[in-house]
């Protein structure tokens, strides 16, 4: 066989072949290049992962392959072939014939990616209706087979249910079933596991892995390098519409060549020791306007001790929690203690559902207690109990040894400045009518307006200091949070929480909605602030990696109970409870 | 979140066939003041400008009708009866030779006044009921909701008709009647608005910061509800004008020969086969006023949502 | 009036991440029947309550009318009724009883469907209502159907036909929704009756007589429903599930008919109860414009001459019809949107 033949052979074998794909969007007169010269190949039984952060152009790439980039998109390519079809030359009818039969698409969240008004059976049967001449009864038989094939138990029952009636894992399987009903040689999976719990994510990845082994070519799109590492043969790292690095998975993850890839890998908190910086320390030239870590040190009123030498490297464990100048109590005493907390709610059908069940924990001063669990495990309710926003049915919360949960709200209100909170959705936590300055002024002045020129000047100074301490430029003070990026919003949320100078911060999924690199910056910031101010964190997350990186002590929550608790290192190294083990095994990590 | 809550009415009808694409990207946040200004102006659709101009015209007509026409709205000139629209009488004349344009201009005052007053009455009642339900304990909420359900069982004009049956016809009663009839709808909106604001993240954040319920109400709930109410009121004035005109048309509000659009229309209907302009122009102005108020109200709602 | 739109649930579920409330469990079978029964029982009890409250409100509201009701019965203050005649009228209508007795008496009569005797016509109010009810129901039901068809057509065209269609239909919708039907009716008469003579200006029995009244009622409603539906068609066309459908090879027409339209119908269905109510009150106007016999005209005449028993009777019947229609739309809602069936009865 000549070399040319071999090339021809492999070209024939590719299920997807993209060369120099360019996509531009027209908005009015302006045109934005969203995908700029992307190219890759996928052969049967291969998985190529396209990894990038939001706005990198990875989803647009996927949709362009299906001819679904939209009317305002201008798509061009030197080559864009699905199997033997040249996508760019296909008419609408031919494109429709290709979709579903030659390529299947799996989107992020099956709750909304399957029509919530139709049964999953009908959604799956649609693919068969559109591409085959099967009779309705043959179709439903086939639907049941496909459902069983993707591991849905009792397919005859599930086929009659709608996405909202199925659990997250089952409905994601049903979505995959609808994409592979016609056994397309190529499956495009756009963030297929992003909305899922760790253990469910593991199951879906295993399903994709199996499809791969059966010969399906997979284009996996994800923001998460760790997830991708599980099943990808090839990884292409995308940013700003370009692929900056492409190669075998082990090579890209193990020996990244491009700076951006290294940044992404470094930002993954899983397995990174406590206190390690995740984001690179920005050079002064690169600071504006998002990340200005450098300026946060020294300008903060509370943390003159923490100096430059502690940043960037690993902080030795004993020094932690002692740095805060405001600390009068020795590290190790309880900042917040929960004893036997229980809370149940009435569900719509009248029965009571226990959401938090006999939960006890101690948050030590200057330390971080990580609370990890999957959705529905009662984490958020625990956070609300700790904040005194809901009264527990049983049990108590004490703050620095003083009563907290049993206090009357009127008595608790003046004490609230001791404990602050940041949330997963910072935008929703800001009054939409206010700009950053007003938000912070309100938090600083306890709602009273500053009086006199002196008062106003002092207030302006405090606002500038607060913004500075969270690494935001003062110029941002006049913006409304709506016009800030996700990372900037979370920084404003942190600044507001810090304004009354609290001792404790309850962080409820503070980085879950953020891109990896931004997440890294925010985690670094939280870490830094803890050292400067001796803060105690109750850190809640579904993400094991984040919790491991942030916590001194870890409590694992499952079904309303804390099933295991202990020093972070011990729990992650030698999980005692079976559920923790399952969680840890399911958690994807690099390497 | 507040996005959808801010607009309990119809979502904006601006033709936004959103596409997946770069529009989804977060604002990189480098907008300067001038760009802000341009954004706001850019968001003012052509329709909104036209609507604003129409309302300004009507406002002038209501406040100083003599600026727009020199003729007397009640001055009869039997010789000029039933003149079709002409350069001298833009909208023609009626059976007594009165100039229709003049009467339409003078009619703006009573129509706008009735519309604004009725909406005001409706909103005040609605804010009282809605705040009780939205802020009060469960039992109050339950009670107010039942009351609203009962009021809803008198659909549309029915509550107004019942009120007029009791207190007799006339401009004042028909204004109050329209206000009463619109109140339940507003009250439900105010209630759900307050509920959704109460459940929003920033109220919880304010609680965590140690704010008292009174402070939270004054500083967060009230301003946020008020923004929505203003848009709602604009929309409501348009509707109230139509309703009040309907009552006049039915002979329950203003009575001919008063220059009121509904009453003019009703009087002109007798001559529909010989003089169409008697009915056409007053009605067209009702449509113009109502449509303009709708367009502006929508614009305000959209702005509230995007802010 | 456009103010009830908040009752329409938007079909956009939130993000599935994090939020514990969204952690949905597999649907438990068997609970459905129980929920349905509970729902039905709640609704019927609610309807009875509302009817009782409506009757009470009217009963005491009527007492606010200045003047002597007995005098009103005998033809108003102008009739110069003798004291004997007044006393006799009081006895006949039970007006000499204590207020509370009268109230109970009234409730009892209403509960058995006895609305009393018309002051003006001297015939049972029930008879007066029955005479008009059929005609008005035909008018309103047909108008509702026509409004729906117009709204669907408008929404589909607006979301399919590009920029121009979107702009044109926006104007159409806003103008249509702002048009008072008393004016629209008159304006429609001009070309079709006066000009071309195709359709009768005075409503006659039969189909031709229905065309103009139906259009007069349907067009403003269609404008309103059209706005609502277009917005939700656009939302649905933007939703991930339509991307999934397209990726499955569904055509744009298929996406609209199978997926988007159903989602678009939801808010419009929720509002149909309200729409029906507004049609009934619109019937008051339209029946007057087209001189069409019906409940609306009966009511208007009764209001004008203060024929109180007729006013009460009509209002009670309209409230009853309205409640029935509301329950029916709620039921339609639950059939069209299975998600509602899983939740509790009330929002």
TrEMBL record, chain A:
| ABC transporter domain span | 16-265, 336-584
Sample GO molecular function, one term: ATP hydrolysis activity
Q: Which Pfam families does this one have?
A: ABC_tran, oligo_HPY
Please provide the record's keywords in A-Z order. Answer: ATP-binding, Nucleotide-binding, Transport
Q: Where is this region: Disordered?
A: 271-332
Q: What Gene Ontology terms for biological process does this UniProt record contain?
A: peptide transport; transmembrane transport
Q: Which domain of life is it from?
A: Bacteria
Keyword Heme set for record: no
PANTHER family, A to Z: D,D-DIPEPTIDE TRANSPORT ATP-BINDING PROTEIN DDPF-RELATED, TRANSPORT ATP-BINDING PROTEIN
Q: Which family does it belong to?
A: Belongs to the ABC transporter superfamily.
Protein name from the UniProt record = ABC transporter ATP-binding protein
User: What's the source species for this entry?
Assistant: Subtercola boreus
């Amino acid at each position: 066989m000549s070399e040319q033949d071999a090339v021809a052979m492999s070209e024939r074998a590719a299920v997807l072949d993209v060369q120099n794909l360019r996509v531009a969007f027209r908005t009015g007169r302006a045109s934005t290049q969203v995908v700029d010269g992307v190219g890759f190949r996928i052969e049967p039984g291969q998985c190529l992962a396209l990894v990038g952060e939001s706005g990198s152009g990875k989803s647009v790439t996927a949709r362009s392959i299906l001819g679904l980039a939209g009317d305002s998109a201008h798509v061009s390519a030197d080559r864009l072939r699905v199997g033997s079809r040249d996508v760019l030359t296909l008419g609408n009818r031919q494109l429709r014939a290709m979709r579903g039969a030659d390529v299947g698409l799996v989107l992020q969240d099956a709750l909304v990616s399957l029509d919530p008004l139709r049964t999953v059976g009908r959604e799956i049967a649609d693919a068969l209706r559109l591409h085959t001449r099967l009779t309705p009864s043959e179709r439903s038989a086939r639907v049941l087979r496909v459902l069983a094939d993707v591991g849905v138990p009792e397919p005859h029952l599930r086929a009659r249910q709608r996405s909202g009636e199925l659990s997250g894992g089952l409905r994601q399987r049903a979505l995959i079933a609808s994409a592979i009903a016609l056994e397309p040689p190529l499956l495009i999976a756009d963030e297929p596991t992003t909305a899922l719990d760790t253990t469910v994510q593991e199951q879906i990845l295993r399903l994709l892995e199996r499809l791969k082994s059966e010969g399906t070519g997979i284009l996996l799109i994800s923001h998460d390098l760790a997830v991708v590492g599980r099943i990808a043969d090839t990884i292409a790292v995308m940013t700003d519409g370009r692929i900056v690095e492409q190669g075998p998975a082990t090579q890209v993850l193990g020996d990244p060549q491009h700076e951006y890839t290294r940044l992404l890998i470094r930002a993954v908190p899983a397995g990174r020791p406590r206190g390690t910086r995740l984001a690179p320390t920005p050079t002064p030239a690169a600071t504006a306007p998002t990340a200005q870590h450098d300026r946060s040190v020294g300008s903060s009123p509370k943390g003159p001790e923490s100096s430059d030498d502690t940043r960037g490297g690993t902080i030795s464990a004993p020094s932690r929690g002692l740095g805060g100048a405001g600390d009068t109590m020795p590290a190790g005493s309880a900042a917040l203690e929960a004893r036997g907390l229980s809370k149940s709610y009435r569900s719509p059908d009248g029965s009571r559902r226990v959401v938090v069940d006999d939960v006890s924990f101690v948050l030590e001063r200057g330390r971080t207690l990580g609370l990890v669990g999957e959705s529905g495990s009662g984490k958020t309710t625990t956070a609300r109990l700790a904040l005194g926003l809901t009264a527990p049915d049983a049990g108590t919360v004490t703050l620095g040894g003083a009563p907290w949960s049993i206090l009357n709200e009127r008595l608790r209100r003046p004490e609230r400045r001791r404990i602050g909170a940041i949330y997963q959705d910072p935008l929703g936590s800001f009054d939409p009518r206010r700009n950053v300055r007003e938000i912070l002024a309100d938090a600083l002045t306890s709602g009273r307006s500053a009086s006199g020129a002196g008062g106003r000047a002092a207030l302006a100074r405090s606002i500038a200091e607060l913004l500075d301490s969270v690494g935001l430029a003062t110029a941002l003070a006049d913006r409304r949070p709506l016009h800030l990026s996700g990372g900037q919003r979370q920084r404003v949320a942190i600044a507001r929480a810090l304004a009354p100078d609290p001792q404790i911060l309850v962080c409820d999924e503070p980085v879950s909605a953020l891109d990896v690199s931004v997440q890294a910056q925010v985690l670094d910031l939280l870490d830094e602030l803890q050292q400067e101010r001796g803060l105690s964190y109750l850190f809640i997350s579904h993400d094991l990696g984040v919790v491991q990186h942030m916590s001194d002590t870890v409590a694992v929550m499952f079904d309303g109970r804390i099933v295991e608790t202990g020093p972070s290192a011990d729990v992650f190294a030698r999980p005692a409870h079976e559920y923790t083990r399952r969680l840890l095994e399911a958690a994807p990590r690099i390497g | 979140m507040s996005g959808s809550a801010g607009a309990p009415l119809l979502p904006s009808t601006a033709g936004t066939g959103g596409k997946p694409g770069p529009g989804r990207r977060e604002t990189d946040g480098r907008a300067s003041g001038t760009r802000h200004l341009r954004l706001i102006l850019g968001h003012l659709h052509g329709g909104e400008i036209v609507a604003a101009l129409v309302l300004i015209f009507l406002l002038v007509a209501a406040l100083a009708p003599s600026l727009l026409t020199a003729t007397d709205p009640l001055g009869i000139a039997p010789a000029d009866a039933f003149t079709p629209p002409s350069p001298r009488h833009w909208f023609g004349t009626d059976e007594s030779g009165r100039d229709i344009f003049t009467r339409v201009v003078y009619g703006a005052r009573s129509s706008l006044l009735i519309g604004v007053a009725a909406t005001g009455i409706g909103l005040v009642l609605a804010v009282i009921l809605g705040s009780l339900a939205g802020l009060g304990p469960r039992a109050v909420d339950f009670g107010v909701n039942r009351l609203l359900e009962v009021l809803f069982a008198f659909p549309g004009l029915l509550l107004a008709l019942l009120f007029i049956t009791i207190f007799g016809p006339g401009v004042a009663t028909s204004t109050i009647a329209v206000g009463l009839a619109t109140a339940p709808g507003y009250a439900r909106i105010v209630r759900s608005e307050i509920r959704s604001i109460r459940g929003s993240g920033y109220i919880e954040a304010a609680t965590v910061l140690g704010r008292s319920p009174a402070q939270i109400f004054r500083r967060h709930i009230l301003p946020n509800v008020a923004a929505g109410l203003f848009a709602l009121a604009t929309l409501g004035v348009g509707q109230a004008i139509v309703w009040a005109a309907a009552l006049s048309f039915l002979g329950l509000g203003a009575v001919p020969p008063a220059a009121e659009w509904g009453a003019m229309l009703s009087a002109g209907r007798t001559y529909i086969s010989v003089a169409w302009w008697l009915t056409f122009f007053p009605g067209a102005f009702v449509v113009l006023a109502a449509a303009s108020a709708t367009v502006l109200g929508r614009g305000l709602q959209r702005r509230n949502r995007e802010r | 009036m456009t103010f009830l739109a908040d009752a329409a649930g938007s079909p956009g579920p939130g993000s599935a991440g994090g939020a514990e409330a969204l952690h949905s469990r597999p649907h438990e079978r068997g609970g459905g029947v129980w929920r349905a029964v509970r729902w039905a029982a709640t609704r019927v009890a609610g309807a009875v309550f509302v009817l009782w409250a409506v009757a009470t409100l009217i009963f005491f509201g009527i007492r606010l009318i200045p003047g002597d009701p007995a005098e009103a019965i005998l033809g108003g203050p102008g009739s110069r009724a003798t004291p004997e005649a007044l006393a006799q009228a009081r006895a006949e209508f039970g007006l000499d009883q204590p207020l509370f007795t009268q109230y109970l008496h009234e409730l009892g009569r209403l509960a058995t469907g006895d609305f009393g005797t018309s002051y003006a016509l001297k015939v049972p109010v029930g008879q007066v209502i029955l005479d008009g009810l059929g005609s008005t129901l035909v008018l309103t039901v047909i108008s509702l159907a026509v409004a729906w068809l117009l709204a669907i057509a408008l929404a589909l065209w607006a979301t399919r036909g590009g920029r121009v269609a979107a702009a044109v239909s926006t104007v159409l919708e806003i103008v249509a929704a702002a048009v008072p039907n008393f004016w629209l009716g008159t304006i429609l008469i001009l070309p079709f009756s006066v000009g071309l003579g195709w359709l009768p200006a005075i409503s006659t029995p039969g189909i031709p007589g229905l065309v103009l009244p139906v259009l007069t009622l349907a067009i403003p409603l269609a404008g309103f429903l059209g706005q609502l539906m277009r917005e939700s068609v656009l939302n649905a066309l933007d939703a991930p599930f339509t991307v999934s459908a397209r990726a499955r090879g569904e055509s744009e027409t298929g996406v609209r008919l199978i997926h988007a339209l159903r989602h678009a119908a939801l808010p419009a269905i929720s509002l149909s109860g309200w729409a029906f109510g507004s049609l009934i009150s619109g019937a008051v106007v339209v029946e007057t414009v087209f001189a069409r016999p019906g409940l609306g005209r009966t009511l208007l005449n009764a209001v004008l001459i203060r024929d109180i028993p007729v006013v009460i009777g009509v209002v009670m019947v309209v409230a009853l019809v309205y409640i029935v229609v509301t329950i029916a739309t709620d039921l339609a809602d639950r059939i069209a949107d299975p998600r509602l069936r899983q939740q509790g009865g009330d929002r």
